[in-house]
Amino acid sequence: MKRILKSGPVKAAALLCMGMLAMSGCQEPPTPAGLLQEVSENMASVGSYAANMLVEMEVTGEIMEGQTSTIGVNVDMDIESTKEPSAVYMGGSVGISMVGVNLSVDIENYTIKENDGYVSYTNVNEQWVKESVESENTGAGITAFKDLAGDEGAFLLSEDKSVVNDQKCYELKGTFDADKLLDILNSAGNAADRVGGMTGEVEFGEAKIPVRICIYEKTRLPALMEIDLTKTMQAYIAGVTDEASLDDLKLIITYHSFNDVEEIIIPSQAKKAVEETRSNELGVSDLERILGGGTWPETEGSEEGAQTEKEWGGQSSIETAPPPTEGRTGWQTYEVSFNGRRMELPFKVSELEAMGYTYGDYMDSEYVINKGQYEYGFMLEPGGTELSVFFLNRTDGPLALKDCEIGGLQTNNWSGEPGGVKIVFPQGIKLGSGLDEVLEAYGNPQDVYDYEEDSWISLYYYSDSDNYMNSVDITVDRETQKVIGLNISKLDQAF
């Protein structure tokens, strides 16, 4: 027997159901484009934000002749940005790991509007520098989300929500045009923009970059953006060189809070910084050249391909000389003394240990160096001052670092006063010696770096222009004509 329901209860039930659905927020499910559009609109009304930018990069290649290693770079920056007044603060560290050595430099940066332009105050190792910024790039307004929203079908909405800062988030995964990456980096502020500079003059073409975007469920504001540049840059590097390979390159921006940042105030010591046309004496462009990212300045009239001081070191009054023959004179005695204790390179690592030198937190004494190889590293004198050294293995088998020899060392006073150990190079040359003393003891160098815009002059002595395994480098302060850096190595028995 069929049961017949009266229309009244049915209608009531239907209305009740519809009401419950409406009250529960029943609506069309969000779409990637819709979410990105909401983020863009919501960010337009944001007056400030706090975020973190993390860059992780690993490169494998030849760090010095015959030596292959993986170099890791880690940039970890906290960011605070305000729209009115337009300003941004970034603070964190840049770390490099290589052959068992971990180094880190703390960095602070303030970018603010001053008069009709923008200026940047940067603090590295307690040294403040002020420089002009060409464009308004403080990162107060993120507009790239709007551009991404217009790329229909580029992203998929994950079924499961992710969690960022203990808050539920929508998660979008997909790819976008590489050119739009530059917009994102530009809108994220100076730090991310400089990370974008890692790509150099790369022509991305129609390359697609994998990206993951998390959006806070409640506020529809950005929570996280992860950009994976690995494959795109791998393809580029493979087409340029076979001596290095990129293992990983990722950029992650995490947004912590919005409209909570108070006025960004420039520290008084930063305001006192002297504005310079160069960011510092050893500026970004110089570091890029040292690391192979650029070319040394050319002097008008230099012959292409000629490896002389006039090509890469400017016009110098210091004359050069051909490499000397092997002998036991001048710098070629390879004798170095530590507080009067004289030793000849190469000598056992244990000799330094006997004088109180330790490995500190950077080095692992059990780190293995293969036969016929050498590695760059550090040891700490009793007072804690770092001594840069080359660990050398001249045996027929692998050796722990502590069982190797010291094949070279470097000392300088760029970071402050020298430590308690007095290090003297061949013929009595030491930090503070005069340029005239160097020329008298070692003769004319084989190469000179003497570029008038820099505050130092470098003299290079070597016995073989093909490998520079046996050499001495002297850095002299241009104004005082005193030695501020010394480097000696005897590594010809490696390999």
TrEMBL record:
Q: Which domain of life is it from?
A: Bacteria
Q: Does the keyword Magnesium apply?
A: no
Keywords carried by this UniProt record: Signal
Q: Does the keyword Signal apply?
A: yes
May I ask which residue range the UniProt record assigns to the signal sequence?
1-22
Region annotated Disordered, chain positions: 291-330
Descriptive protein name:
DUF4412 domain-containing protein
Q: Which organism is it from?
A: Murimonas intestini
